[in-house]
Design goal:
Blueprint lengths: L5 E5 L7 H12 L4 E4 L38 H7 L7 E6 L13 E6 L10 H5 L4 H23 L3 E4 L2 H11 L3 E3 L18 E4 L8 H11 L3 E4 L5 H7 L4 E5 L3 H9 L4 E3 L7 H8 L4 E4 L4 H4 L6 E4 L4 H10 L7 H8 L4 H17 L11 E2 L2 E2 L2
Parallel strand pairs: 1-2, 1-3, 3-4, 4-5, 5-6, 7-8, 8-9, 10-11, 11-12
Antiparallel strand pairs: 13-14
Helix pairs in contact: 6-11, 9-12
Length: 380
């Protein structure tokens, strides 16, 4: 039986990154679905959702954007629970933080595509708190503790979880006690094609502290090799200050420009522990190998010795050694393209359709009675 009304929910729609590209694929799969999100910026998302008119939460009145939305952090769980999903038969949440916490009707099916449990409250909690003075650390630690309580309760209301990688699947099990299947994100591999590689190594990433772009900068400062950093974010100013003259920053670029940078790269450099890492697949789709830290999703998307190489420790010296040993002529562009094909949009569409059909047909235990959050103070 096909659902009559479908709601698609995303954490926030303020720019276009990997998670937003997944949400765009969901929108294509369900063209008649209604969209919901905590906050929305039509300009920041390049008008890609304008025709669908996303329904937002009360936080939209504050007009947050990609630079300011984090200031509202404690309010997002309550904002998601306040979204009105009455009357929807199927709810699909695209969640890397709080979208999985929406409250669906008792008879509705809620499928969550999990990019990662909220990193700052779970796997990156200690590293995040370590950056602050003792007073702020104590206050933020309390917020994160309350967030964990809310997050676990919210996770029990989801009917079916699917994760974007083995890394995320294990975190969903560890933090929420929920089983999840793995469905790799859709990568628009058709946007890319091999070209003539140049001399520059490339980083393609949001410039956030947890992405460890400073590791790449320190390594290439030492190597004195050309590195192009493509992307923007809160860490951009600091990174520019520590970069040598051999390192170029492009800021945010269009999809076509990003494809051109990847096509001409000697290799893509990945320093973060990515849950999946769409950029690594995009680089391979452009026929270029990847030099990556051996952690997270790249272990599932890069074939060592065929489409890339790994370095073992998140330290500049380890990356320096990997780059010095790297031979770009040892990698066949066609092998890179073929490997990237495993993650094409068509595989995602087929997998998600099958997942949703199974979820609708299965008998499910009653959904736990909702406990709504007030900020992060959970009512009993």
């Amino acid at each position: 039986m096909q659902p009559r009304r479908v709601a698609l929910v995303h954490d926030f729609l303020l720019d276009v990154r990997g998670a937003e590209r997944v949400f765009l694929a969901l929108c294509d799969l369900f063209p008649d679905a209604d969209l919901f999100t905590a906050v929305y910026d039509e300009s920041g998302t390049e008008g890609r959702f304008a025709q669908r008119r996303p329904t937002t939460s009360f936080l939209q009145r504050m007009r947050p954007d990609a630079r300011t939305f984090r200031a509202l952090l404690p309010l997002y769980p309550y904002a998601m629970e306040a979204l009105d999903l009455r009357g929807y038969d199927l709810v699909i949440s695209s969640s890397s933080a709080w979208a999985h916490g929406v409250i669906a009707d008792a008879d509705a099916v809620h499928v969550c595509y999990c990019h990662n449990p909220f990193r700052y409250a779970w796997n990156a909690r200690e590293a995040t708190l370590a950056k602050y003075d003792p007073l702020r650390r104590a206050a933020l630690g309390f917020v994160f503790q309350r967030w964990r309580q809310w997050d676990w309760i919210a996770a029990q209301r989801v009917d079916v979880y699917t994760a974007n990688s083995e890394t995320t699947r294990k975190r969903v099990k560890r933090y929420f006690g929920r089983d999840a299947s793995v469905l790799y994100p859709p990568v628009e591999t058709s946007r890319f094609s091999p070209g003539e590689p140049g001399d520059d190594y490339v980083v393609l990433s949001e410039l956030m502290p947890h992405k460890r772009i400073d590791l790449a900068i320190a390594a290439f400062n030492a190597l004195r090799l050309p590195l192009t950093v493509v992307g923007n974010g809160p860490d951009a100013r600091r990174l520019r200050r520590i970069a040598g003259p051999n390192i170029c920053f492009t800021g945010r670029v269009s999809d076509d420009e990003a494809g051109a940078f990847l096509r001409s790269a000697k290799a893509l450099v990945v320093t973060a522990t990515e849950e999946f890492g769409i950029a690594a697949v995009e680089a391979q789709a452009a026929g270029r190998p990847v030099i990556a830290l051996r952690e997270g999703g790249v272990r599932e998307t890069v074939i060592e010795g065929e489409t890339g190489v790994f370095f073992e420790r998140p330290e500049p010296a380890a990356l320096v050694d990997a780059v010095r040993a790297f031979d770009p002529l040892a990698f066949d562009p066609e092998a890179c393209v073929a490997n990237a094909g495993r993650f094409d949009v068509a595989h995602f569409r087929h997998g998600l359709r099958a997942l949703v059909d199974r979820a609708i047909e299965e008998d499910r235990p009653p959904r736990p009675r909702p406990r709504r959050a007030r900020g992060l103070a959970i009512s009993q």
